[in-house]
Amino acid sequence: MLPGRSKLAVVVFLLPPLALYGLALLLPIVQSLFLSFFRWDGITDMKFIGLDNYAKMFTRDDVFWAAFGNALGYLAICLVLQLGGALMVAGLLTGIQRARELIKTLYLLPAVISTVAIALLFQRIYSLEPVGLINQVLAWVGLESLQTAWLSNIQTVLVAVSVPEGWRFTGLYMLIIYAALLAVPKELEEAARLDGASWWQVFWRIRFQYIRPVWITTTVMATTYALRGFDIPYLLTNGGPGQSSELLTTYMYKTAFVHTDYGYASAISVFIVVECLIAVGLIFLLLRRRDDS
To answer: What sections of the chain are H helices per DSSP?
Structure first.
């Protein structure tokens, strides 16, 4: 037990960051919740409409549901690229000695590059006229028939806007998982190999189980970041063509600042917050069931 003075010191040092957290995060959420019960264009007086914004969102807005479906697809692609790629690269890094620091730096570099720069880079990569990198590679290997305007094709645009986000944060999660893998006791791995375990059994039964707390954290981070993804899809396509790459975040932004319907945009923002909380809850629920079994 901490003595009285130590408890007081802890409280004193915790109060400033907690107050800052409340002002920066919790207060805007409460304000958005409050505003979601009103109709307001940002200029005239607010008009209380109760749950009408939520009723419209769930029953009368096809664009919202299209954006919700796109957001789930965007989430799935980002998780596969970020978590799958991070785990694979981190595992490979533990088995090499040379150029390890260079590889880590190169993979981490996209996380510190400007979002606008990444969007401009991928605009050139996806370009059809002038020919971008992907279409040029297809021409080199004799697959000219597959060349397309990746950001204008409704069949490919959602994947096209998801890949930059997945690529951007793979290095960050790779570094976290790599640090966790380094902490796995070598004695456990050596004992398993002496018992005849294959490399997959060593990885799945020992390494992965040992880093599960870190894996949970990275999964939560990747999931919530992807559900709140906005900047790269907005810069690349602005939700188009049509609503084929519209996400909840881009739809919320345009509802507020293009259509000046701040009440409805606030209702969408509340839904995004609830969506993130539900996703985190499901992650912990599934992992708890696995632990119990």
So the answer is: 4-21, 27-35, 52-59, 62-79, 85-93, 100-108, 115-126, 133-140, 157-182, 186-194, 199-202, 208-210, 212-227, 231-237, 248-257, 262-292
Confidence of residue 176 (pLDDT cuts 50, 70, 90): very high
User: Which CATH number is 41-292 given?
Assistant: 1.10.3720.10
Q: What are 286's two structure tokens?
A: 């599934």
Q: Are 99 and 81 in contact (CB under 8 A)?
A: no
Look at residue 231 and give its three-state secondary structure.
helix
C-alpha span between 80 and 170 (Å, rounded): 10
pLDDT tens string 180-205: 999 888 888 888 888 888 888 888 88
The pLDDT value recorded for residue 99 is 80
User: Tokens 């902490």 — which residue?
Assistant: 183
Burial class of 96 by CB neighbour count within 10 A (0 to 12, 13 to 18, 19+): exposed
Return the H-helix or E-strand segment holding 38: strand 38-39
State the Cα–Cα distance between residues 76 and 19, nearest whole angstrom: 35
CA-CA distance, 156 to 196, in Å (whole number)? 45
Q: Residue holding tokens 């396509």?
A: 237
Structure confidence at residue 279 as a pLDDT band (50, 70, 90): very high
Reported pTM: 0.90
Per-residue pLDDT tens for 58-91?
999 999 999 999 999 999 999 999 999 999 999 8
Q: What one-letter code names the amino acid at 201?
A: Q
Secondary structure class of 48 (helix, strand, coil): strand
